[in-house]
Amino acid sequence: MLAAYQKLLDQSSKNKLENKKFLDQLKKQKPAQLDRIIQDLHDEAFNQIDCLQCANCCITTGPLLLNKDIDRLAKKLKLRPAVFTDNYLKIDEDKDYVFKSMPCPFLGSDKHCTVYEARPNACREYPHTQQRDQFQKLPLTYQNSLICPAVAKIIIDLKNQKII
Q: How far apart are CA 159 and CA 19, in angstroms?
């Protein structure tokens, strides 16, 4: 991971209590323009941060896989869904399918996803800062700020917006 990205994650970790308090206040207040503001900050962050220089989400955080994800991945790998499940998945404490181990078994040594077109929906939507109803996703944004340098940057920039 690039040093600048690690610095953002270190700053997010160092300020995690402050960030959690800020996001909790934001969630209570539900600012009218929050979706637009976070979308703009998301676009700005991802203009500066290249996921392929990081891949920390793929290294540390396993997605929840839905049946349609399993079917899509199994088809991509030319496996029956049951065989794919046996080879790659386990059921976690919430009774959800997740990868047996991390990093993701489909993360290449070049940090590219080897099943990108068939990747799980959770991977397609990560880090969720580009979606609507951001006030509902703020607890997830907090968690992702400790994993994703772009989300760490979004929170830093959001705090600088002085919207609360």
A: 8
Q: How far is CA 111 from CA 17, 84, 85, 108, 162, in A?
A: 31, 22, 23, 5, 36
Q: Give the span between the Cα atoms of 41 and 129, in whole angstroms.
A: 9
How many CB atoms are located within 10 Å of the residue 43 CB? Answer: 11
Cβ atoms of residues 40 and 88 within 8 Å: no
Residues written for the chain: 164
Cut 0.85: pTM above it = yes
Query: Amino acid identity of 35?
Result: D
Residue 56: both structure tokens together: 């920390």
d(CA 89, CA 85): 5
What is the token pair recorded at 43?
């676009």
The structural domains of the chain, with segments of one domain joined by +, span 3-58+127-160, 64-125
d(CA 115, CA 118): 5
> Would you give per-residue pLDDT tens digits along the chain (164 residues)?
799 999 999 999 999 999 999 999 999 988 889 999 999 999 999 999 999 999 999 999 989 999 999 999 999 999 999 999 999 999 999 999 999 999 999 999 999 999 999 999 999 999 999 999 999 999 999 999 999 999 999 999 999 987 76
